[in-house]
Amino acid sequence: MTDGHRAITGNFLDSSAISCHFPAMSLDVKICGLKTPEAVAAALANGASHVGFIFFPKSPRYVLAGTAGELRKAAVGKAKAVAVTVDADDAFLDEIVAAMQPDMLQLHGDESPERVAAVKARYGLPVMKALSIRDAADLDAIQPFRGIADRFLFDAKPPVGSELPGGNGIQFDWRILAGLDRNVDYLLAGGLNAENIGEALSLTNPPGVDISSGVESAPGVKDVGLIESFFDAVRSARARSAA
Ligand SMILES: O=C(O)c1ccccc1N[C@@H]1O[C@H](COP(=O)(O)O)[C@@H](O)[C@H]1O
């Protein structure tokens, strides 16, 4: 139940790279919705373990597969490149996989366990299944995907009327993750930013975190300073918890 996420001690976190969730493991940090070489470079320079590219046309973060294929080259050997799709059909996934060569697929729609299994088999890539969470009962959705999805991503349910299934900058009540089975490998997402990441980490001790709009100056516009501030806040929080 892992994508073999790597320790990011080499270029990030160093002595603070201690996961409270899985002792001796590090925290994964995925910066999502990247569209420019500058934003990719900032994520990598700060030690991102994953960089994400959005293939949902209604998103302000949407990129063409060829563009993502160019951008992801900077991540080779440094971070995993993740293709984020929403109920994509095989033809669209074929195009993305061929042009971008992702390390991982993030399925952020209403994909069934059978669809996740089929996607895994078709591409031989690890799959992260996103689940929309509002309350503890929503975590029941994990069960049918266990042994199928390599990883989960817990994001807040989108607000009524939103056209985006993710990237809404909305957080859910992180306290409901307190009783989660420790064997569930996941990224915490939804409304994270430099101000709240400390509280999020201390409440949930997640294997990883995922952020998009919290490091943007406007929808779809990544801000290098905000990316740096987010990593600074992660480092500070982890140094505090290790002390
Ligand atoms: O970001 C998007 O536009 C998006 C579109 C379609 C599916 C998923 C999307 N984003 C995912 O949502 C998380 C959380 O975003 P935020 O931090 O709350 O803005 C993001 O990291 C993506 O994995």
Automatic annotation (TrEMBL):
GO biological process entries: L-tryptophan biosynthetic process
InterPro entries named in the record: Aldolase_TIM, PRAI_dom, RibuloseP-bd_barrel, TrpF_fam
Keywords per UniProt: Amino-acid biosynthesis, Aromatic amino acid biosynthesis, Isomerase, Tryptophan biosynthesis
Pfam families: PRAI
Enzyme Commission number(s): 5.3.1.24
Gene Ontology MF terms: phosphoribosylanthranilate isomerase activity
KW Isomerase (keyword) present: yes
Record-annotated N-(5'phosphoribosyl) anthranilate isomerase (PRAI) domain positions: 29-232
Catalytic activity of the protein: N-(5-phospho-beta-D-ribosyl)anthranilate = 1-(2-carboxyphenylamino)-1-deoxy-D-ribulose 5-phosphate
Pathway(s) where this gene product acts: Amino-acid biosynthesis; L-tryptophan biosynthesis; L-tryptophan from chorismate: step 3/5
Family: Belongs to the TrpF family.
Alphabetized HAMAP family for the sequence: PRAI
Protein name: N-(5'-phosphoribosyl)anthranilate isomerase
